[in-house]
Sequence to fold (465 residues):
Amino acid sequence: MMERGTIAAISTPQGTGGIGIIKISGSLALTIGKKVFHKKSRQTPVDNTGVFFQSHRFYYGHIIDPDTDDLIDEVLIVFMKSPGSYTREDIIEIHSHSGRAVLQAILSLVLDFGAELAQPGEFTRRAFLNGRIDLTQAEAVMDIINAKSKLALDIAAAQLKGALKERIMVVRNELLKIQVVCEAFIDFPEDMDDAFETSETLVKLKEWGEKPLRELLSNYENGHVIREGIKIAIIGKPNVGKSSLMNRMLEKERVLVTDIPGTTRDMIEETINIHGVTVLLADTAGLHQAADPVEAMGIRKTDECINNADLIIFMKDASVPMDENDHRIYKQIKHKKHIIVRNKIDIAPTEGSDTTQWKNINEIDVSVLRNAGIKGLKKKIFQTVAMETAPEGGYKIIPNLRQKKMIEKAARNITDAITSIEEGVFLELVVFDIKDAINNLNHVLGVIVDTDVQEKIFDQFCVGK
Fold:
């Protein structure tokens, strides 16, 4: 394990709370911990350099300013001896009260005794570099921190346990076996006649290599939606109740509502949770021919929102017949996954309305004014989008684009190897494709990873993790 400097940082978010944590990792962690921590009260400070800290055990005491002999805070301190720690280095954690001033005072003291301020994600980066976790697990740590729903958290936790790693390792190890057999046949063909079977190699490449990677890739969009949230755009003509619907779904008065058409001129976004799934809800400007340049800008944003949405809620006024604008809007969004919401059903005519021609499985009646049908709409949203994204197992989800690109390359390499064998191409060229596939899977795991890729990944972390 490579020797690195000792780092320290505040590992809890800013704000008022019960507990704040300062984390120290590196060869000087224990020495620094003994210098800043005092088991006895400030009235009888002692030199703790000879004090023994049992690993993974909390001790109660005080942090005292050595210059003034003033008490900074009463704390709990825990020592985690290498390699039984998050970074596989010696770690000291100081658990104090979480006020900003007290945390900064303790951190400054730690830095004065020889630690360096940690960079974003440096603790997790050390865990990766020291072999405690692979790169998929390191990225899962960030996903756990950013998880917006229980489903997203479950997937991230599965990756942290090594679900994706295990899936990739199975494919990589099978490819390594195939590579060994192919190279042995190339070098010693007279000894391998009975051991090498082209048809058997093809089956292994397809069933143990290409197929599982394609399965992973097919579920990337589901994983992306679960992690980032389902994007839903509420669209319709002015004054059909879009903003009121958003307020009802949020269960708060988030959007200004008036009887004047065109009140909403800009897109307003909020996040809600529907049955454990994160939904990014966007209230948009009413779609119509607008002369006002500001209103026209809002409508252009609505068009952009429609293109980026995973689901469209097309809202119409059930109390009046369909008109040209309704038909034009529906034509614009019918190719997207959508739900038609008929609002003002409480005052809609029961007979003689030409809106009945729109009745279909994707339609639901609501009265936003009377808060009727909103629960049913949320259920339909979940049934329309969220249930399709529910994973059969955490290992079948590719969490991010970096991993997806590497797995795509590996899958293409395997496909090329299969095609080459079927076409009778020299076995040496087949081996090149297999080696490239293994190399790309190693990039997924972080066995091979460029420094700039590491920087991009760990720079997304907060300081202290």
Observations:
- The chain has three domains: 7-131, 140-219+396-446, 227-389.
- The longest strand covers residues 71-80.
